Amino acid sequence: MSSLQRTMLKGRLPPTVPGSRIGRSDSFKKSRVRDFKPTQWNEFFAYKEDVVVDEKRTFRIYRTKQPEKVGPTLLLLHGGGYSGLTWAHFCVEITNIIHCQCLSVDLRGHGDTCTGNEDDLSADTLAHDIGDLLNKLYPDEKPPIYLVGHSMGGAIAVHFAHLMIINNIIGITVIDVVEGTAMEALASMQSFLRSRPTHFKSIPNAIEWCIRSGQIRNVDSAKVSMPGQIINCTTNKLATNELPLPENDDDDASSTTQFTHPFSISEDEEISGANEATNESDSSINFTKPLNVNDDIAKKYTWRIDLSKSEKYWVGWFSGLSDKFLNLRIPKQLLLASIDGLDKTLTVGQMQGRFQMQVLARCGHAVHEDRPQEVAEVVSGYLIRNRVAEAVGEFRCHLPAC
């Protein structure tokens, strides 16, 4: 009989909250100091470039180096509110597996991209932005393009492929976006956006919130991704332009601040990037000490984009998405954080074998940030099986295909 069972029989089971780790002292939790110092783009990408498409549109792109052998170009499209830096760790992982070049783009209204009308986030506008950017980058002969999109970016990738703006798309991977569940979630989207803090006192503070709130569960990914989502309130420039942080800001990069949040997250998931080797079991943390973001000192940074203003485009992003996805005449892959995410149309399509599906466990919505290695393996395996990419070395995908 285990010690826990004996304690239960004696009626001395300590009070807990769902998912809490029994026997783990509060003093130990409070003593853990975590590093939230941001990292820079050049640790993951070889090139950063501002591409002028016309007098009203300049797009920020990040690229990995050219592969040693000829391979496809992976065009990576981020979700709403994110930036091209959301793919940083994924790019490192996948270029170590297959011969390819990654092209990550800051979409209109996001990151360091500048356009004449940043509020126009319609599916057609975003899709034609991508086509014009590719024509500018490759005016003569385009490489084979494989589309990878997360959330809003996944919907735009499907829309872009459906419009057939260019004719050299060789396949698509859509990450954690399904028409049925997305349309259902729209009703509560404004409430979710209002629940987020409006300002942050520093870049590390924003990274800390990102992890503690569960937006991203991999601290290493949050360190490079989150600065691409916020701007300095004084300069209106993206926080990435202030990196690296001065040495005297190092103290602010470590924190034990506690945040109030409507749900608890797993501690080993929250710090997975920095502490995978601990092999600790899942637990939940209750954040009870709120950060006072109303003080002027705490209002140094705010969100790059006000997503609430894009509400009129939400239905256009996701309406008809499942049918468009299934009708694409290219190899199709869908990665989900939960099997419950499938709607009826895709469930039927999956049973008919019209696309490959993979469910990745222990992930939040930002699947590619929470588990970049696993996502890279799944996408690489799919490209290799479809003979559109070659492995750098011996490759064996350890994840089962669904």
Structure description:
By secondary structure, this protein is of the alpha/beta class. It has one domain (41-385): Alpha/Beta hydrolase fold, catalytic domain (Rossmann fold, 3-Layer(aba) Sandwich). The chain has 16 helices and 16 strands. It has helices spanning 3-9, 26-31, 88-95, 123-137, 152-163, 179-185, 189-195, 203-212, 219-225, 267-270, 272-275, 311-318, 321-327, 344-351, 367-370, 372-385, and strands at residues 34-35, 47-54, 57-63, 73-77, 101-105, 114-115, 145-150, 169-175, 199-200, 230-232, 254-255, 265-266, 284-285, 301-303, 332-336, 356-359. Strands 2, 3, 4, 5, 6, 7, 8, 15 and 16 form a 9-stranded mixed β-sheet that branches. Helix 3 (88-95) packs across helix 16 (372-385), helix 4 (123-137) crosses helix 5 (152-163) and helix 5 (152-163) crosses helix 13. The longest helix has 15 residues, at 123-137. The radius of gyration is 22 Å and the shape is globular. Residues 1-31 and 258-293 have low confidence and may be disordered.
Average pLDDT level? 83
CATH class: Alpha Beta
In the CATH classification, which architecture applies?
A: 3-Layer(aba) Sandwich
Largest sheet: 9 strands, mixed
E-strand count = 16
Spans of at least 5 consecutive residues whose pLDDT stays below 50 are 1-31, 258-293
Radius of gyration: 22 Å
* Category by helix and strand content: alpha/beta
Give a nutshell description of this structure.
The chain has 402 residues and is an alpha/beta fold. The chain has 16 helices and 16 strands. It has helices at residues 3-9, 26-31, 88-95, 123-137, 152-163, 179-185, 189-195, 203-212, 219-225, 267-270, 272-275, 311-318, 321-327, 344-351, 367-370, 372-385; strands at residues 34-35, 47-54, 57-63, 73-77, 101-105, 114-115, 145-150, 169-175, 199-200, 230-232, 254-255, 265-266, 284-285, 301-303, 332-336, 356-359.
